[in-house]
Known about the structure:
The protein is of the alpha/beta class. 34% of the residues lie in helices and 18% in strands.
Amino acid sequence: xxxxxxxxxxxxxxxxxTAAAWGDxxxxxxxxxxxxxxxxxxxxxxxxxxxxxSLTITATxxxxxxxxAAHGTAGPLLPGIALAQRAAHRPIAGYVFIDADLPRxxxxxxxxxxxxxxxxxxxCAYLRTHRDRSAPTNHDQALREARLRTWPTTxxxxxxxxxxxxxxxxxxx
Length: 173
């Protein structure tokens, strides 16, 4: 399997959670040679989450290009976080939605979230994990939309682990 292009994978947890929600995923990805950062943005949503995550990313001095990966309701925040990173001259290599909601143009007006007119300006992928199937979600629809957009998608099932499935998607970007 080819290695991920040099750069940094930024794992963004859901708003009102912490980076601890990723469990051992960051360390497992590091064991594959992936440079991973996990900004911890507790108690923030919407534009505040975008601002805090962006400041935390900047403080880590990540190696560009960045691949932004979001879980759950952090998905719609990716365009705003990417906009801040691009303004700081950190190019975006891609986006990965992990059991995540997708950004929608109406998010800009409903939640005052920035949506760059050129989004997505980088490749996107969608990972649906086996853990997501334990509760009813709208991620079936997000996975279908990702497939309709011809994004690389993975519907992860054991024995393939989540880190393996994510690594495979990263190489597909």
